[in-house]
């Protein structure tokens, strides 16, 4: 069976597809609106408090918070302020 341009277009179901050109089609479900995020910063001065333990971090995780970054900031000789940055969808 030999396919002509017109019969190929009929078989392909797309009149704008040329024989020999095969482009994969990817269909993706994209939400109509972008998600809204809220942020939480937990700052700990090591001179005044201990760093958060597993239980504290697990509690934040149960509330939907996701740890995305940490930052250590030197505040005085030998002490730090550690900032924990969390995000969750509203």
Explain what you see:
With 90 residues, the protein is of the alpha+beta class. The chain contains two helices and three strands. It has helices spanning 5-12, 54-62, and strands spanning 37-45, 66-76, 79-89. A three-stranded antiparallel β-sheet has the order 1-3-2, with no helix packed on it. The model has no long low-confidence stretch (mean pLDDT 83).
Could you outline the blueprint of secondary structure elements for this entry?
Blueprint: H1 5-12, E1 37-45, H2 54-62, E2 66-76, E3 79-89
Antiparallel strand pairs: 1-3, 2-3
The helical percent reads: 10-25%
What's the rounded overall pLDDT mean?
Answer: 83
> Please, what is the oligomeric state?
single chain
How would a crystallographer describe the biggest sheet? 3 strands, antiparallel
Structural class assignment:
alpha+beta
Shape: elongated
- The tally of helices reads 2
Radius of gyration: 28 Å
What percent of residues are in strands? Answer: 25-35%
User: Strand sequence of the main sheet, in spatial order?
Assistant: 1-3-2
Condensed summary:
This protein has 2 helices and 3 strands, in the order αβαββ.
Please name the defining characteristics of this protein.
single chain, 90 residues, alpha+beta, 3-stranded antiparallel beta sheet, 2 helices, elongated
């Amino acid at each position: 069976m030999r396919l002509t341009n017109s019969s190929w277009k009929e078989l392909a179901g797309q009149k704008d597809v040329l024989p020999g050109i095969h482009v994969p089609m990817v269909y993706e479900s994209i939400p109509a609106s972008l998600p809204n995020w809220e942020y939480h910063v937990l700052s700990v001065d090591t001179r005044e408090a201990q760093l958060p333990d597993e239980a504290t971090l697990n509690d934040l995780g149960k509330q939907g918070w996701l740890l995305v970054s940490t930052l250590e900031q030197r505040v005085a000789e030998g002490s730090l302020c550690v900032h924990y940055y969390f995000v969750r969808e509203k």
